[in-house]
Structure formats: C-alpha cells, structure tokens
Specification:
Structural class: mainly alpha
CATH architecture: Up-down Bundle
Number of strands: 2
Number of helices: 11
Number of domains: 1
Strand order of the largest sheet: 1-2
Shape: globular
Radius of gyration: 19 Å
CATH superfamily: Rhomboid-like
CATH class: Mainly Alpha
Helix content: 55-70%
Strand content: under 5%
Amino acid sequence: MSDLGDWFRSIPLITRYWFAGSIAVPLVGKLGLVSPVNLFLWPDAFIHRFQIWRPITATFFFPVGPGTGFLYLVNLYFLYQYSSRLETGAFDGRPADYMFMLLFNWICIVVSFCSSSNFENLLMIPLIMSVLYVWAQLNRDMIVSFWFGTRFKACYLPWVILGFNYIIGGSVINELIGNLVGHLYFFLMFKYPMDLGGRNFLSTPQFLYRWLPNRRGGVSGFGIPPASMRRAAEDQQGGGRHNWGQGFRLGDQ
C-alpha cells in the first residue's frame, strides 16, 4: 500500500485531484450511494431547476459496467498520462495557468452540451480529450506509438483515439467535442498570438495566481512571450514556427 500511496502522491497536484475524483464519483454511483441519475448533466435540470452541481459531477462521473468498463479504464489512463505531462511539461511551475486551461475547456464543453439536447450528458471524456489535444499540438512532430505497433506524429493522436473509442464505444460525439474545444484553446492561447501575431484573447485571472501561485521557474501570464524573446526565437529558427516543446511516446511514464 505504501508503494501505491507513493505513486499517488507523485502525481502532479491538479491531475491528482482530477484523477481521484474520476475514481471516487463513479464508485459512489456504482455502489448506489447516490443515484447516477443525479450525476448526469441534464440541461433542463441544470438551467431551469438550478441543480448547479450537475456540470461538476458529470465531469467526474462515468457509468462503469460490463459494457463500459474498458472504455472507462482507457480514458482514465489518458487522463493520468496526458494531464500529468502537460502539468509537468508546458505548464511546469504554472499551476494557475493549467487550471485556467481546464476551466476554459470545461466551460466550453458545458456550454456545448447545454446548447443541444442531442449530446450525451457526461463530460469526462470531452475534457480528457481536450487536454490530450493540447498536448498533441504542443508536441505535434513527436512520433508516438499506439496499439499494435502503429507509429505516427502526435498531432494525429486525438483523431486516432477518436476512431479507437468509436470502435470500442460506438460514439464520437464526446471525442469530437473534446478535440474541437482543445483546438479552440490551442488556437487562442498559442497559435493566433504566437504564430499569427494576433491579439491575446485569453489570460489567466489574477485570483487563480493568488490561489495557485507560480512555483520557482514559472512565468506569470503564460501565453505571448516578450517581443524581444519572440524576435530572438525567430532569429534562431529562421523565422519559422515556434518550438512547442519536448514530446513523449504514448505509454511512457
């Protein structure tokens, strides 16, 4: 048990709580301590009956059963792997910026689900996929390995997983929404201001910095680097694309 505890404490802070919640809430529903009906996001109940807990519980809940258990475990693995890599990689020392990314993606997903009654009512997979999409774009040229030894660039990983989840789960709505939301965040935070020289539309609120202060080495206001740094980077790279960071192989610890 000590080894398990050490492993759990080694998970980055935000990912640790997200991972724990994604185990605890489905377990509560599985044991019948709370009816799963109360854990879904029903737009009518959320908007008109003011059941404001539903977007939160729907983020952590997943109906685990004989037909969904494998899909749940696969996405729990993706949560642990890619949230940890983002939190300790591109967002290292900047927990407030990482929390802001999660909140932005979560709000966009909630709005998407509430705007149409045709969408499924669980937010776990879309939020995980949005994080995975951002990681894949920040490491887009890294070669990753997937099942059966297939190898491809990381930028294609979200779409490969979309197809994979369709095969084992039968739906792509959750994955598609997650990819689109992840693309929106990546475009507004990185692509548009850095590569296209546009305005920075996203910035982390100051209250998050007070709640989750930057650790040593972190830089507040993650997004657009100072102009002098941008010019130096362009000179070093011949005016090319921004170097988004180091990648990892799928499944590496």
